[in-house]
Amino acid sequence: MFSGPFGAAGLETEVVMKAVAIGKIAEVTGGLIIQGDPGITLRSVSTDTRRIKKGDLFFALSGEHYDAHDYLAEAAAAGSGGLVISRLVSLPAGIPVLLVDDTLAALQALAAYNRDCFKGPVVGITGSTGKTTTKDMVASVLGVRLRTLKTEGNLNNEIGLPLTLLALDDSVEAAVVEMAMRGPGEIAALSRIARPEGAVITSINETHLERLGTVSEIAAAKGELLEHILPGGFALLNVESPFIKREAKRCLGKVIFYGMNKPAGLMAQDLRPEREGFSFNAVLEGERHAFYLPVPGRHNVLNALAAIGVGWELGLTMEEIAAGLAAVSLTGMRLEILEAGGLTIINDAYNASPASTRAALEVLKDISGGRRRAIAVLGNMLELGPRAVEIHREIGKKAVGPGLDYLITVGNLAAAAAEGAVQAGMTWDRVFPCTEHAVALKILKGLLLSGDVVLIKGSRGMKMETIVQELLKFEGSKTVFHP
């Protein structure tokens, strides 16, 4: 939860917040107290009866396949300090109950109230790719000086963002919140709750094509964030993203473009590969500043630029910003470098888009360096719409080169990447399209030699981390590959 020298703690579906009276919660949410004393105060919120703790205010959320109103007795038995419901059902006795029109809307209203009571800066981060990594970098930078709350795990949607904001209490001095979306209007809704002082749009690319149709529409949906920053606020925008100049016109505050390959107010230059990442210079307001980023991937230097810009706008010194970047620790399964039995495993299994897959393949080639065998195991990239097969085929073509020795694909869409690789010159004895993880793993194990570098990448729904878990059991081969 906290980033920087102040330590870290997990945030799931139970959140400790400032003490709030039931009566005040009713006022904020427009609810009616139908049971209990309005003067009772609560200090924590939960949305999951499996994780509820004594004293939690339980919000009975409903969805397409679940309704927490069916578990109110379990919530009470677990020690819940109060219930928020949207329909009258059999209620446990002896526990405060608040009736509202919509429990999710009530959760969001309480979060918005808590955010409005918070006096520190809130930074909102969205984008097609790079959100989580940039969030981690920004939080690490701000954490050098400020007690910084950040989004944990995947709590970046209409439920997760309110839970994050409810954790804003007197111990927090800054917050960095990630915002995800499935369609238009969702970033705007999250932004109205978070009311950020600073905003970052990390990238605009083909992710979510299935839901939004065109990259232009994706840009418009991400750009909703810019209309909701506070007066006097700022936005860091990746100048290399399509349509970003158009979206910048929606910004209500200061705009800072950042980039590496196009002119921008904040630029990275002189990239130098290091053992675990890159050293580089950032040029801001005509001044050059040296940084070290212990994270693989040239594309991550772009994400670091956003963190530099946010830190600078919020008053940190360049020395503090450099210290924060040098100490950054990324959320798991994002270009996570693991070692097992002489293998180097690049665990990038959390999610995949065309842009992030291209970037991950570059990291694979950088780490193998032409001296070690490079093996890519790629799963389906989902939500790409009618062009999905074509996009996968193009990824396969781009993967081919002296830096890739073997390609294994998992899934019907990823099979098109295998076809593309063969079309671009790889031979079928080096390309293995598979329909199941088990088959891919069997082939992979038959290929592995100590010294190999293996990339595992795929969309969240593909659960490619199951292959990573098996690779971690690798004990090495008798033969060590020598180029």
Structural features, described:
- The protein has helices spanning 22-29, 72-77, 103-117, 131-142, 160-166, 186-194, 209-212, 215-222, 244-248, 299-313, 318-326, 354-368, 388-399, 414-423, 437-447, 465-471, and strands at 2-3, 14-21, 32-35, 41-46, 57-59, 82-85, 97-99, 122-126, 148-150, 174-178, 198-201, 234-238, 254-259, 266-273, 278-284, 287-293, 336-340, 343-348, 374-379, 406-410, 431-434, 453-457.
- 52% of the residues are buried.
- The protein is globular and about 70 Å long.
- With 483 residues, the chain is α/β, with parallel strands linked by helices.
- Strands 1-9-10-8-11-12-13-14-15-16 form a ten-stranded mixed β-sheet, with helices on both faces. It has a six-stranded mixed β-sheet with strand order 2-4-5-6-7-3. It has a six-stranded mixed β-sheet with strand order 17-18-22-19-20-21, with helices on both faces.
- The longest helix has 15 residues, at 103-117.
- Helix 9 (244-248) links the parallel strand 12 (234-238) and strand 13.
- The protein has three domains: 2-102, MurE/MurF, N-terminal domain (Udp-n-acetylmuramoylalanyl-d-glutamate--2,6- Diaminopimelate Ligase, Chain: A, domain 1, 3-Layer(aba) Sandwich); 118-326, Mur-like, catalytic domain (UDP-N-acetylmuramoyl-L-alanine:D-glutamate ligase), CATH 3.40.1190.10; 336-471, Protein-Tyrosine Phosphatase, Chain A.
